[in-house]
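#lab-general

N.A. 3:47 PM
ok so I finally got the sequence cleaned up, no stray characters, all 197 residues accounted for. can someone with queue access submit it? mine expired

B.Y. 3:52 PM
send it over

N.A. 3:53 PM
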Amino acid sequence: MQRILAKAGITLGALALAVGSATVIAPTAQAAGTSTIAPTAQAAGTSTIARFEGKTIDLSKDWGAAKACNVRRGVIECFRTAEESATRAAQQAKTASPSAAQGYCSTPLRLYEHANFNTAPFPAGRILSFYDSGYWQNLDVYGFNDQTSSYRTGSCYTSFAVDNGGWGNQADVGPWQSDGYMGSGTWNDLVSSIALY
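B.Y. 4:20 PM
back already:
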């Protein structure tokens, strides 16, 4: 994060304040596209087909009864519960070969639709989990643009951006961090793209 801030010519300031195991992020005046991961062009309005209970659904239009989706190597699987999603992820982790492990994180970035990780007093919401690393992923194609209110990072570093393709203000957080209120609300419902690295 410091190399990105230095590149943009700003100080660390309030971008990331470590609070125990949580990282609080706030928007910055960072120049667009200054992340170590190059911004990409992903077509807006792209259909994103996922597997859900033996059928397919288009996440860009409607999740239906699905509440948790895992995005891994272009394969998207959705489930009715977070527990089913976690069970499937654990099964895949056991069978992954070392060569297959390149290009993705062993544990995902989890984006939650509501604050406090979708737990009381907030309503149960959707969870979108990402494993793939090395490029920007636009959330609109998953029906999740500007809908992230809390997150947990996994084993990889994560960049958040307010615009598609990694453009606009960015914030970076390290592995094993979480924030139940998206920078005390300063990033609530503002994330349009993410990248893991």
